[in-house]
């Protein structure tokens, strides 16, 4: 069958000396690195919304490419889209995909019609997944695009909107479960506010948490044993998104007793919008036992919005993979390319170049992160930096057996602090550079 991506060859690993732009230079899916194949370390996923649906529209202009896959009827287009998605995943050697309900099947006039359409496309996806040996990384519901969600979904001031969102989420959970997805994402969508003049923030947060509890309880009742994720984002589309950053989300999850079922889906561009590095957000998730999955993309430091660019920064991908390895690798999560080609890059080849660039950046990052860990200098430096907590008064602090009186007596006796060694930041940056580009 001829598809949108028919002109593309299968992308193979050719090594870092290749000049072929339609080849991988670092991603060699079955190569064993640090004990397992690269494809298992990286668990790349295609985002259905950007790759299969987005047409390059922005607020200044209509799309620059069409993604109706040669069909004018919306359901025929959805079926053709599915065929093309699997063709592309085969060609890029991507094993997983992520989707919103409305990405895979167009919304109908009623919830019942939308659900019936989802059933039909889910049948098709199930068949294609078997044929092409592909898996769902996570599913979700688009509770932000339709005008009914203009004031939010779970945080809407209108109970009918809350109920509609609940109905939509119930169905999205069912299809995610049916397709074997091990993750379900809540990205805030329009869960936030523009002004406190019209907003009851406490009620909105209580309601949002309640909706999540309902989702967890229902999903567990139908046998979903995967992870729920919240994907933090500080702003856009609302001025104040409730899921601002990892720390805010952790506080929310703990307050509402959702922390057992939820982990975090960290997106690079959302981290930078929150004024954090990608690595900071990943580390915050990791040290709180909440590292789950990743939306792999990058922003632009000069722009204040979610540009969702394909990730090409080798430092960022290296530090990301360092965090992933330190977290013990992915369990149910993976690297979802929540990324789109620029509006001016409007051909099927551009999509291939973009994925190759992103996959190679993370494959490089994995290789470099393994080198950093095996080299050991960074870990050793950090360990030594805190060595004063291994003996004497430091050990008592570490064991939390010291009293304030005892510490005061110790300090009075000390005179002043005599040893405070250099943090050696520039040296450590040089070590990283040498390991990256050796
Ligand atoms: C938007 C989000 C969105 C989620 C899925 O900024 O990144 O794409 O990943 O709803
Ligand atoms: Ni995302
Ligand atoms: Ni985003």
What distinguishing features does this structure have?
438 residues; alpha/beta; eight-stranded parallel sheet; two-stranded parallel sheet
Topology:
Blueprint: E1 12-13, E2 23-24, E3 32-33, E4 36-37, H1 38-42, E5 44-47, H2 48-53, H3 74-92, E6 96-100, H4 101-104, H5 111-132, E7 135-140, H6 159-178, E8 183-187, E9 192-193, H7 201-221, E10 227-231, E11 240-241, H8 246-255, E12 262-267, H9 268-273, H10 278-287, E13 291-295, H11 314-326, E14 335-337, H12 348-375, H13 377-385, H14 392-398, H15 404-414, H16 425-436
Parallel strand pairs: 1-2, 5-6, 5-14, 6-7, 8-10, 10-12, 12-13, 13-14
Antiparallel strand pairs: 3-4, 9-11
Helix pairs in contact: 3-5, 5-6, 6-7, 10-11, 11-12
This protein binds D-xylose and nickel (II) ion (NI) (2 copies).
In sequence order, what are the helices and strands, one letter per element? EEEEHEHHEHHEHEEHEEHEHHEHEHHHHH
User: What's the helical proportion of residues?
Assistant: 40-55%
Secondary-structure-based class equals alpha/beta
Give average pLDDT, whole number: 98
How many E-type strands? 14
Distinct ligand kinds: D-xylose, nickel (II) ion
């Amino acid at each position: 069958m001829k598809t949108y991506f028919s002109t593309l060859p299968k992308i193979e690993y050719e090594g870092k000396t290749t000049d072929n732009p339609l080849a991988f230079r670092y991603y060699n899916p079955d190569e064993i690195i640090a004990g397992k194949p690269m494809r298992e370390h990286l668990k790349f996923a295609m985002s259905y919304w950007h790759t299969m649906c987005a047409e390059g529209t922005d607020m200044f202009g209509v799309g620059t490419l069409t993604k109706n896959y040669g069909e004018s009827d919306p359901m025929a287009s959805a079926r053709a889209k599915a065929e093309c998605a699997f063709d592309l995943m085969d060609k890029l050697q991507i094993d997983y995909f992520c989707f919103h309900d409305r990405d895979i099947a167009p919304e109908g006039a009623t919830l019942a019609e939308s659900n019936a359409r989802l059933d039909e496309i889910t049948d098709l996806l199930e068949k294609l997944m078997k044929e092409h040996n592909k898996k769902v990384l996570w599913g979700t519901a688009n509770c932000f695009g339709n005008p009914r969600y203009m004031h939010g979904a779970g945080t809407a001031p209108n109970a009918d909107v809350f109920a509609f969102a609940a109905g939509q989420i119930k169905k999205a959970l069912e299809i995610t479960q049916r397709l074997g997805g091990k993750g379900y994402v809540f990205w805030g969508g329009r869960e936030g506010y523009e002004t406190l003049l019209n907003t009851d923030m406490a009620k909105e947060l209580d309601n949002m948490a309640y909706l999540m509890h309902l989702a967890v309880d229902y999903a567990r009742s139908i046998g979903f044993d995967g992870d729920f994720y919240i994907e933090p984002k500080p702003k856009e589309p609302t001025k104040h998104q409730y899921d601002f950053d990892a720390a805010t989300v952790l506080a929310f999850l703990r307050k509402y007793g959702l922390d057992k079922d939820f982990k975090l889906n960290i997106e690079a561009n959302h981290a930078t919008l929150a004024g954090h590095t990608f690595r900071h957000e990943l580390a915050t998730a990791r040290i709180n036992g909440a590292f789950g999955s990743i939306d792999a993309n990058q922003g632009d430091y000069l722009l204040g919005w979610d540009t969702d660019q394909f990730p090409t920064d080798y430092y960022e991908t290296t530090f990301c993979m360092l965090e992933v390895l330190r977290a013990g690798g992915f369990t149910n999560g993976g690297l979802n390319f929540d990324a789109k080609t620029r509006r001016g890059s409007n051909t099927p080849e551009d999509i291939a170049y973009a994925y190759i660039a992103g996959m190679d950046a993370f494959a490089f990052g994995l290789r470099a992160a393994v080198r950093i860990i095996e080299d050991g200098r960074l870990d050793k430096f950090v360990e030594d930096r805190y060595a004063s907590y291994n003996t004497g008064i430091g050990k008592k602090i570490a064991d939390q057996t010291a009293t304030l009186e005892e510490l005061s007596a110790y300090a009075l006796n000390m005179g002043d602090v005599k040893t405070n060694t250099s943090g050696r930041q520039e040296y450590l940056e040089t070590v990283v550079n040498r390991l990256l580009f050796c």
